Amino acid sequence: MENLKFLEKPVLFSPILIIGLSGWMDGGYVSTGTIVYLNNKLDAIKFAEINPHPFYIYNLPGTMEEIAQFRPYTKIVDGLVNEVQFPTNEFFADTNNNLILFSGKEPNIHWDQYCQILFFMCEEYNIKDIYFIGSVNGLTPHTRDPRVYSSINNEDLKKILEKENIRFTNYEGSASLVTYLTFLAKEKNMNMINLITDVPMYIHATNPRGIISIVKKVTALLKLNLDYSDLIPLVEQFDNNMAVVMREQPELAKQVKKLEENYDNEIVTDNQNFEEWLKKHGIENL
What we know:
Elements: E1 4-6, E2 16-22, H1 30-42, E3 45-50, H2 64-67, E4 73-77, E5 80-85, E6 90-94, E7 99-105, H3 111-124, E8 129-138, E9 148-152, H4 158-162, E10 167-168, H5 177-187, E11 191-200, H6 208-222, H7 232-248, H8 250-264, H9 271-280
Helix pairs in contact: 1-6, 7-8
């Protein structure tokens, strides 16, 4: 397969594929953060990678500040160019649990070709079940455990998810690569389950509470023997840091209190109004 490089060929038997992507659905770095956590926890070994160059735009019209997010990363020390890093798209194998984990960046272009590489990997290992894990920014307060929602490509999968109290998404609007992949997977007779958690829109740092919510669901659904108690201290530190912020910004604390009341009563309000309030008060990056 063009643009796919195997470093080795691990022995797996119809494994499950778990996908995490930076970009569209990686609020609080839950998608990429969860994959990193699982890779480390499960001692997964990198065995393949996708050539990034056909799939990303490195240059666009605009100022340096505007297009910096699209450029490769470089490191120069004392005048010496030490490295240039391009987006990575890597496959990892956990032979003990019969899993393949994929960590990548949502491509800017050539979506179909990118998806076909993923499907080639599925065909290579006879994969029939695909999971995507991700997150979106919403009106979830940082003081509450975020809910997990799902979209699927097979009605029969609902029975599995309902047992874990996972809700189902209602959405209409701009699509992600994941939605397209889910649609294509059905044509190839592959099941695809997307697990998406809500994270607070007013926090742009890594959200360990979001990560643990996804890890819990993945562990339960895949029946993994995984101790994730090491995430609890990270959640506690996150809560402590946010408590300091709330004391320093009482107006934000009042807004969060309203979010808590709405969240507990399952009242859906307008994201845009809260976003405008945050911008008005200069609160866009916590």
